[in-house]
Amino acid sequence: MRSHFSKEIPFIHNRKKFLILSAILVVLAIVGLVGRGLVFGIEFRGGSEIDFRDTGAITIEQMRGALTQTGENDPTIQTAVTDGSQGFLVRTDTTDPNVANAHAAQAAQSLGLTSESYTVTTIGPDWGADVTRSSALAFGVAIILIIAYVSIRYEFKMSLCAILALLHDLVITLGVYAWTQTPITPNVVAALLTIMGYSLYDTVVEFNRMNENATQLKDGIHRTYYQIANFSINEVFIRTINTTVTSVVPVIAMLVLGGATLKGFAFAMLIGELLGTYSSFAVASPILAIWKTHEPMWAKLEKKYGEAGAHAAKESA
């Protein structure tokens, strides 16, 4: 038995370490969310976005000064590169398109830029509120459907563990956005919804193997739920890694080579995919194994064949 188990990666044996690490990451994420808060793009809060291109040697300070002189209060300015040329992406709270265009024109003129060197996009607060409601509704419906599917296909305990791992991934991802002050845009929301699918996929693959192995109990070796869970994770681990690698490579390419729009999507996807892979074997499966081991049948088997039973047998010998 010992030689058989030695061939397995001891995921469940290290469950406490994984869960402590996850708890630390979640706490850090919550601290970032509370202390620094999330930065929402103009699509959610309304405002204007001015894309300045071919700005040459103009600095952020010069751009900020030009915009402030037009009456813009505390504009958010970040550098951008379009077709190899230096530029700036400016976000302001101005919701009137006429005012936003007038301010952009004045700033461009004072900096010696032409009228073709910038474009202005303005979104009203009502549209932003609609996007917020739609995003919240999408998340709510997705979570309800996940609970329903996993409960019907497997059992209710598995659905709650899957949701817990999913929330773990989303909270930490949002925490990274809070600490880095990266704006939340509709593309990021789309990435977060996609992350839910990736996180659920890895978790359900492991749950499926655990369910089958717990039902069959053919080998006479993996008799406790901890043993079954660890064996099941090892069975699908290479598949999980292969899926993650093939998914992450194009995301990294988007993050490195893509434009500003693609980078926002890719950043969330990269964090979420890595967390989804981690949480499947470090959060969802260990929590399920702990929960199932408290059931009478599995508690009895754990007492006889598990770590506590082996320790007692060793002492009596």
How would you describe this structure in keywords?
single chain, 317 residues, alpha+beta, 71% helix
Give your account of this protein's structure.
The protein is of the alpha+beta class. Helices cover 71% and strands 9% of the residues. The chain is built from 12 helices and 4 strands; from the N terminus they run H-H-H-E-H-E-E-H-E-H-H-H-H-H-H-H. A 4-stranded antiparallel sheet has the order 2-3-1-4. Strand 2 (76-82) and strand 3 (85-92) form a beta hairpin. Helix 6 runs antiparallel to helix 7 (156-180). The two termini are 17 Å apart. Mean pLDDT is 85; it is low at 309-317.
| Strands, count | 4
Low-confidence stretches: 309-317
Distance between the termini: 17 Å
Total count of helical runs of at least 4 residues: 12
General shape: elongated
Q: Helical percent range?
A: over 70%
Major β-sheet strand ordering: 2-3-1-4
SS class? alpha+beta
Order of helices and strands: HHHEHEEHEHHHHHHH
| Main sheet makeup | 4 strands, antiparallel
Question: Helix and strand layout, with pairings?
Answer:
Blueprint: H1 2-5, H2 15-35, H3 42-45, E1 47-52, H4 60-70, E2 76-82, E3 85-92, H5 97-110, E4 118-123, H6 125-153, H7 156-180, H8 186-216, H9 225-257, H10 260-293, H11 296-305, H12 307-316
Antiparallel strand pairs: 1-3, 1-4, 2-3
